[in-house]
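We modelled the chain as a single entity of 307 amino acids. Its sequence is:
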Amino acid sequence: MMKPVVLVVEDDRSSRDALLQWLERENVDPRGVETLAEADAALEAESPDLVLLDIDLPDGSGLDLMDRIPDHAGVVIISGNATVDRTVEAMRGGAIDILQKPVDLKRLRRLLLHVRDTRALRDEVRSLRGALKELGHFGPMIGTSPRMKELYGLIEKVAPTDATVLISGETGTGKELVAAAVHSFSERRDAPFLPINCGAVAPNLIESELFGHERGSFTGADKQHRGVFERAAAGTLFLDEVTEMPEELQVKLLRVLETGEFRRIGGTEALQSDVRIVAATNRDPEEAVREGKLREDLLFRLKVFPL
């Protein structure tokens, strides 16, 4: 397998050279540039697996490069003076991490491991897709029409990442099959895939189904219950008909997406969420926002990659 390609965009020569030498020892294929213009040229010449991006460059902000980096490439911001606003802008732009100078090499090594796993998985997915496409199969889906092939391509693109996915489509169009395919071709494929229909669970029970509850937290709670956020640990949680979720639960879901933490009903311990969220709706999401059925800030968090 080819070595992962890492592009270092850093104007400080000594810092850039030190990173390039360290990366070579980590068995990756590094490239180094010092300006936005050189970075653009490098991206046109070759598609990297990871971009280490300084913010302050001689010809502009490194953040301006974000929308020109391929979606499959991870972006790690390296900066000596990243403000809160710039950090938020970078994360919204798709950065997977932000490293302060001097760079924490142990942390960077963990990121490289993730890049290698993602590269290997993407190559595997591409190989599988090529073989199955001839038979009209892609995961649990079947079809050879141009629209289906386009959908297969989008799933192949997003599956190896941990990006949140929002699937829109009429009832009966196979949204759960799409979600299952995203899970099947992801790094989480050996962990649980748990679907929950947010419109089919009674409003007084859905919070417990999502987050769980402690014994005695309400009438009838005679034992501890683990919600789907716990039961789907390391896997994928499919939130079907998410626009039917009560607004107060949308607020709590938003908080989990923002902080990665949740609490069982009646509990005081903050539990860590390690799930990939795939949501779906049979409504037009933008129209659902206008009608007050879906919070706009939640839509922003869910619609990282729309299908």
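As a brief sanity check on the tokenised model: The two ends are 30 Å apart (CA to CA). The chain has a mean pLDDT of 82.
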